[in-house]
Amino acid sequence: MSLIYVRRKSDEPPTIKIVVVSLVVFIVIVFIGVFLLMLISGYELRDLVNIFFDYRNLLSPEVIRYTMIIALLSLALLINVAGGFINLGGEGLIALSMLAFLIASIYNLGILTGFILSILLLIAWASIPYLSKIYLESSDVLVSFLQNFIALFIINHIVAHVFRGELARPRSPPIDPSINLHYVSQGSILYNYLGRVSIESIIMLIIAIVFLSYLLSETKTGYSLRLLSHSIKTASISGVNIPRSIFLNLLISAILLSFASAELLLGGERRIFYNENAKIGIGSMSFGLGYVSLSIAILSVRKPYISLLYSYILALGYMMVFLSYGFYRLVLGVAIVGLSLLSVLLSELLLRYEVRLSWRLRR
Amino acid sequence: MEIKLDQIIKFFGSLKVLDNASIHIRSGEIVGLLGENGAGKTTLMNILYGLYRPDKGVIYVNGHKRYYMDPLYSMKLGILFVQQFPRLIDSMTGAENLKLLLRRDKRNIPDLLREYGAKYDLQVDFNKKVAEMTILERQKLYTLISVILGARVLLLDEPNMLLTTDESFREFLRRYAREGNSILISSHKISAVIDLVDRIYVMRKGKVVADIRDNIRERYDEILKLMFEYGNNRDKEYHVVVGSGGVEYEARENLFKRKILELKDLVITEEIRKINVYVNDREIVSVISIAGKGDKELFDILAGFRKSIRGKIIYKNFDISSDPPYRRVVRGIFFVPDNKLDLISPRYKIREIMGLWSIRNNEISKCLSETSVMYRSPEASVSELSGGNISRMILAIIACNKPDLVIAHNIFSGLDLLGYEIATKLIKRLRTAGVSFLLIMNDYEEALKISDRIYVLSERGAIEININEAYKDPSVIWREMVS
Fold first, then answer.
1. What is the rounded CA–CA span in Å between residue B241 and residue B356?
2. Contact B76 A354 (CB under 8 A)
3. Sign of the alpha-carbon torsion through B385, B388, B389, B390
4. Chain B residue with minimal CA distance to A216?
5. Which residues of B touch A226 (CB under 8 A)?
6. How far is B46 from chain A (nearest CA, A)?
7. Tens digits of per-residue pLDDT, A56-81?
8. Do domains B3-228 and B259-481 have the same CATH topology?
9. Which residues on chain A are in Cβ contact (under 8 Å) with B50?
10. Interface membership of A139 toward B (CB under 8 Å)
């Protein structure tokens, strides 16, 4: 008889250890996995080497842009996780937020109104699984998962029938140029790195990391938010105003989600695409973005700034997909993102868990 | 089964919580593990069961050497651990929890319950949801589940109330040991175990300081001295100032000269008639009840976790019957549940829990010294604290928070003799400063010692008992409880 016993360590590992272990595990897992996959699928090894070992890819504007998007989305879901709300509907929320910007564009409402509309829409949408969990004891995971598909279906429908653009293929009209963020100018030395990332998002990400780290570990409001994840009973007899905590949680999350969505929509093709293959899901988004960001959120809930590292790792994974080509691109893409995620999960296991093996012993 | 823990050392951070602790348990023995709060009793049990891994030392199971245990392996061997706050699934009934733990064992649950219930004569309601059970009921439930799971070594962590209030449980333990099984009971209450055990180990500051085998019943004072003797060179890492009293208590203006809380015709269950109880300002009132006979329901209704069938709760002249729990707290009521982990989350750091109650970082040390809480550092996790120290921490929060009214269910549970002394003094001091108390208790002796007035909860409702009469003849309380 052999037994595996896994126990979470009570002590939090130091940051430097997290960084080193995460990167080493990522390199080992992803690179070995991708090498094997490419060899099986007939990719030329030389092409692979060119993709992975070209240092220019590691800090390319697209990698940094994706890091920003994943990090903002992760932090938005992190505050949910800290409050005991496992939100599997990240992609649906991003899509809804995009819809808000599209409406602001079509009716010339301006970007600020777009943000306000997005925040209100996201609070209303995300409050359904959260409130039903707290007051009806339903599963937040299941409800948000179902809501994700509903949201994507709605957006697909709107893009195909309500706000359809002028082109034959269903897609929204382009976002009005007045709805825009600010970017680093082409002449700047930073352009080669931050050329595709808006200044607003950079500022928001920095504020979010500092704010969330401080809020969750140093303030009474943060402790109250976190207490909801432990037990509603404990929270209520500790004097936590549960409706207010839920609202605050959803508000912070909605602000960050709106920035992630703005970055994705306004820094990219500036249209929402209909996904005609899947019928659900929209083409403007990379697959698995919500699930990947949720995993990062869960892993970095104790140290929000770690989400930046994990986001970078996952952004590299996505970038490998974008840089690959040919028939196996989809398979490769799923595998790379999956392997990136696996590396993050394995790092978590190595860093925060004690794993023991016991072998057969006589009774 | 024979178990030996040899020279066990365990650190929490830099704090040495076990210092070369050795114990030996033989088949058919009931062994007591006595010590004050934070002496290391629970940590030693956690190591024996496999929840913690020792930093040094060896465990012998039937002579086989092991450097550490793990819970699955312990369960396979028949070592079962009934924790002070048993970890059961709250939303399930006792029978469902049993089914979950039986895993691949396909035995019929009702047959098992009938068989073991009849064999040991232990009254456990397996159809009740765990969330509705008191800690005593949960401990009893988990003990019986452990027996059904085939326990050959039963580890009982602080079952003090069960041992002092339930003779059938004591009888069960004696019988179970006679059948060749071993029982290790950790406790800080000498009277709870002294006439039950075959041997006693006394622990202090992580060390086993005595192994008492003969004439145990006559050696009460000696054990007491061994448990609580405070030396001058106490480990500096422990933040302990015995009976300090650093917090100042300014007497509040007596705003509510009369009733601060009044329960008017409150119906908590169909089996219990209307309850009419009041608490005056600066008064300590106890409601004594048999465990599981309305005490938990009463607390839950007062805290706002469930609605009463009928009646009103009037607090400072406001009807708070329909207020959610947090609003009651905001109004100045502090609730202490039976399960202390329902108030103090073990996932938090000490600093964070104190922060939740608006106690600033620079006040934490002063506040915790008020009830002599033993802790490594404010950054340490609450899960490092023993059950008794968590109880002390709650009292420290009350001391620094100074609510208007404290409603507590078994407020003294988990406290050792010193902790109890500190708690009673503190409660009296707080009363002088303007805090009122409604204490729902299962232990009538504790209630008699501290209360200004007492009620007894029975099917007839809450009956006020003349406290002077009860002092002279406590049987009036029992008679009323079983009426």
1. 24
2. no
3. positive
4. B352
5. 348
6. 13
7. 777 888 889 999 999 999 999 999 99
8. yes
9. 5
10. no
Q: What percent of chain B is predicted at pLDDT more than 90?
A: 48
ipTM of model over 0.85: no
- Chains A–B, number of C-beta pairs less than 8 Å apart: 84
DSSP B360-414: -HHHHHHHHHTTT---S-TTSBGGGS-HHHHHHHHHHHHHHH--SEEEEESTTTT
* DSSP conformation letters of B413-433: TT--HHHHHHHHHHHHHHHHT
**Residue keyed to tokens 């598909």:** A149
Q: Which range, of A216-220, A274-278, B128-132, B173-177, averages the lowest pLDDT?
A: A274-278
Report the C-alpha gap between B456 and B462 in whole angstroms: 5
CA A233 vs. chain centroid, Å, equals: 30
- The tens digit of pLDDT for each residue in B272-326 reads 889 999 999 999 999 998 888 889 999 999 999 999 999 999 999 999 999 999 9
**Rounded Cα distance, A34 and A317, in Å:** 10
| Residue B350, pLDDT score | 93
Q: Is residue B35 helix, strand or coil?
A: strand
Task: Tell me the C-alpha distance between A71 and A315, whole Å.
Answer: 9
In CATH terms, B259-481 corresponds, of 3.40.50.720, 3.40.50.300, 1.10.760.10, 3.40.1160.10, to: 3.40.50.300
Give the A window 218-257 contacts with B, CB below 8 Å: 218-220, 223-224, 226-227, 230-231, 233-242
Closest partner residue to A230 among B330, B335, B347, by Cβ? Answer: B347
Instruction: Round to whole Å and give the CA distance between B32 and B190.
Output: 9
Q: If contacts are CB pairs under 8 Å, which of residues 151-170 in chain A contact chain B?
A: none
The pTM of the full predicted model, rounded to 2 decimals, is 0.80
pLDDT digits 0-9 by tens, A111-132: 999 999 999 999 999 999 999 9
Model confidence at B419: pLDDT above 70: yes
Record: fold of B3-228: Rossmann fold (3.40.50)
Q: How far is B109 from chain A (nearest CA, A)?
A: 26
Q: Which residue of B has its CA nearest to A354?
A: B53
Residue A306, φ and ψ in degrees, nearest 5: -65, -25
Q: Which of residues 305-324 of B touch A (CB under 8 A)?
A: 305, 324
What span, in angstroms and rounded, lies between the C-alpha atoms of B450 and A184? 71
To the nearest whole Å, the CA of B357 is away from the closest chain A CA by: 8
**A contact test, residue of B356, B394, B404 with most A CBs within 10 A:** B356
**Max Cα-Cα span within chain B:** 68
Structural domains in chain A? 68-322 (1.10.3470)
pLDDT surpasses 80 at B106: no
DSSP-derived letter for residue A198 is B
**pLDDT confidence tier of residue B254, bands split at 50, 70 and 90:** low
Q: Which residue of B has its CA nearest to A7?
A: B51
